[in-house]
Amino acid sequence: MILNYPEYKQKHKDYLYYKILTKILTILSDEKQNSIIDVGSKGMDLISELPQKIKYSVCLTKPLDSQKVKSFKMDFFDFKSNIKFDIVTCFQVIEHVKKAKDFIQKLQNTGDNLLISLPYKWDKNICKYHYQDPIDENKIFSWTKRKPTFTWYCKDKDHLNRIICLYTKNLSLKKYLLLKLIPKRNSFYKKRNILSRFRLLLLFFT
């Protein structure tokens, strides 16, 4: 699959799911979280400005290009590290992987908290590069063998749905409450109200 990366990046940074992911990572990341790894970055940077001291990007085609991130251009199946990462992220990637169950198991083994996003109930003919469509909660559970701590749904300006799943360990009460306040179902056409409400909540809890 050949992508125009500047065009892809510009397009997706304005998507609602991307903004929701940014909010989730802002809540999860603090001085106690020392490490984060993003798998399948495709040049999309959601981690370089986070406070973690250790930041990795692993991507088969285009890992992050940042002085703040250690990048690996390689297959994630071949990636090895002695680090048990605090946060593992993987956005809009799993649907492109033939061995999705093995891929997710490796993601889960790589760190304590896992944040993923995937196309939600897309018809299998929408994208010829997707091996796993249609994807729903049951299919995700068949891969992870565990229920997510949080699930969010986004209907974006392309009129397609995406699902965001967060799997956590030892989540603080403050973070849990802040994450709980993010609306479970989100629409691009209501994003201004959602983000305005969220800014007020962040001011209240910080």
Write the layout of secondary structure elements.
Layout: H1 5-12, H2 16-28, E1 35-39, E2 54-59, E3 70-73, E4 85-91, H3 100-110, E5 111-119, H4 137-144, E6 150-155, E7 161-167, H5 173-180, E8 185-187, H6 191-205
Parallel strand pairs: 1-2, 1-4, 2-3, 4-5, 6-8
Antiparallel strand pairs: 5-7, 6-7
In short:
This protein is of the alpha/beta class. The chain has six helices and eight strands; from the N terminus they run ααββββαβαββαβα.
Task: Describe the overall structure.
About 30% of the residues lie in helices and about 25% in strands. The chain is built from six helices and eight strands, in the order ααββββαβαββαβα. An eight-stranded mixed sheet has the order 3-2-1-4-5-7-6-8. It is globular and about 40 Å long. Residues about 1-5 have low confidence and may be disordered.
Widest sheet, order of strands? 3-2-1-4-5-7-6-8
Structural class: alpha/beta
Distance between the termini: 43 Å
Reading the helices and strands in chain order gives HHEEEEHEHEEHEH
* Overall form: globular
Count, helices: 6
Radius of gyration: 16 Å
Strand content range:
15-25%
Rounded average pLDDT: 89
Helix content: 25-40%
Q: Specify the biggest β-sheet.
A: 8 strands, mixed
Tell me how many strands there are.
8
- Uncertain runs: 1-6
List keywords for this structure.
single chain, 206 residues, alpha/beta, 8-stranded mixed β-sheet, 6 helices, 23% strand
